[in-house]
Design brief:
370 residues; alpha+beta; 2 domains; five-stranded mixed β-sheet; five-stranded antiparallel β-sheet; 29% helix; globular
Length: 370
């Protein structure tokens, strides 16, 4: 059983990111997706979409005799996963195969959001991985009810779909096991090398992925990039971040309560700075800001623009002040952030814990309320 824990500081509300820190959030309603949650995703499906797997050798899944038991169905889901991810072959299904809808749903995601031209483009692997990461983070709800079952001593949950691909593609609900398997599955269909990693995060069992982009391996933790919180109106929401997107092994290990690898094939030696390269600018109230903020003055200007705009939502940036060397220390930027939040609203209670998520390498997801 694999769950994930991550800290979140939010003023005046209860907050949770993953199961062990979110017991009180079980049974939460589906979150709304804000308009800016995934601006790079493609809105119009391509005509005649092409997937890399279609050019590969076919492999027929094992024969089915009669109706499958839950255990047999689960084994068949694993067979489909192994055929596509490990064997790298195109699956051929039996008539009325109960796992074929999983494959159809996964392909539909790629057909809608992944362009054919990316397969031969220099940035294609990055674009595919970025889209898969954001799609899963935005569209799959974390299964908090499953944790309640586990917490209450119910161990008869090993066949629960949330641990597997069908939880993602058929139910839209999963835990890190199912999310990491779905990530591998989507990458394999579109020809990107991906490897599912198991271990722990913040002392809790956890699963994430390594992915190969332009010959180099990186860590991607989709589950940890889903930020759950409960807003002032009492509804549960989540926001997307890229704080655990394309990181090195050392960065994951050294961050507070860091990731621990059960085994470590395909060493990831570098971090990809999404905020420096992939997401360079953000616009607030008609003003442009760098996604990497390097001074208190610029941070204050950003929050002042937020205050002027009247927007409610989130801002995702990296803080990289020249004077800061230990950016992964817990309180490295707390005073600077408190000063900036004080500019949003005169009576904002900055003496209390501040509403932000903290990620490796000085990345922050700020929640802004008026």
């Amino acid at each position: 059983m694999r769950f994930n824990v991550k800290k979140l500081w939010v003023t005046a509300f209860a907050v949770a990111v993953c199961l062990l820190s979110a017991v009180f959030m079980s049974g939460c309603s589906s979150r709304p997706v804000t308009p800016d949650i995934a601006p790079h995703l493609i809105e119009t499906p391509e005509t005649a979409p092409e997937r890399v797997i279609d050019g590969r050798e076919e492999q027929r899944l094992s024969a089915i005799v009669g109706e499958l038991t839950p255990t047999q169905y689960r084994a068949r889901v694993n067979e489909l996963y192994a055929t596509v991810v490990y064997d790298k072959k195109k699956p051929i299904f039996c008539d009325n195969d109960p796992v074929e809808p999983i494959y159809v749903a996964a392909r539909a995601v790629l057909d809608r959001y992944v362009l054919n031209g990316w397969h031969s483009d220099d940035d294609g692997e990055y674009n595919i991985v970025h889209t898969i990461h954001d799609y899963l983070a935005c569209n799959v709800d974390y299964d908090f009810e499953l944790f309640d079952m586990y917490k209450n001593g119910n161990t008869d949950i090993e066949n629960n779909a949330a641990f597997y691909m069908d939880g993602v593609f058929l139910n839209g609900r999963a835990v890190c096991d199912g999310i990491s398997r779905a990530f591998d599955f989507l990458c394999a269909i579109d020809g990107v090398d991906s490897f599912r990693v198991t271990g722990s995060f913040a002392s809790a069992p956890h699963a994430w992925n390594k992915v190969k982009i332009n010959g180099e391996w990186f860590n991607v933790d989709v589950t940890s990039d889903c930020a759950y919180y409960v807003g002032m109106d009492g509804t549960y929401r989540k926001q997307l971040s890229h704080g655990f997107f394309l990181l090195s092994d050392d960065t994951l290990k050294q961050f507070e309560n860091g990731h621990v690898f059960e085994r470590q094939p395909y060493v990831a030696q570098s971090d990809y700075n999404y905020y420096e390269v992939g997401f360079k600018r953000l616009y607030v109230n008609g003003k442009m800001f760098d996604a990497v903020i390097r001074s208190q003055t610029k941070l204050n200007e950003l929050f002042e623009a937020i205050a002027e705009s009247g927007d409610i939502g989130k801002i995702e940036i990296m803080l990289d002040f020249p004077s800061k060397t230990q950016v992964n220390s817990v309180d490295m930027y707390v005073d600077e952030i408190r000063e900036a939040y004080g500019l949003v609203k005169s009576d904002f209670d900055t003496s209390r814990d501040l509403p932000y998520f903290r990620y490796p390498n000085g990345v922050y997801l700020f929640l802004i309320y008026k």
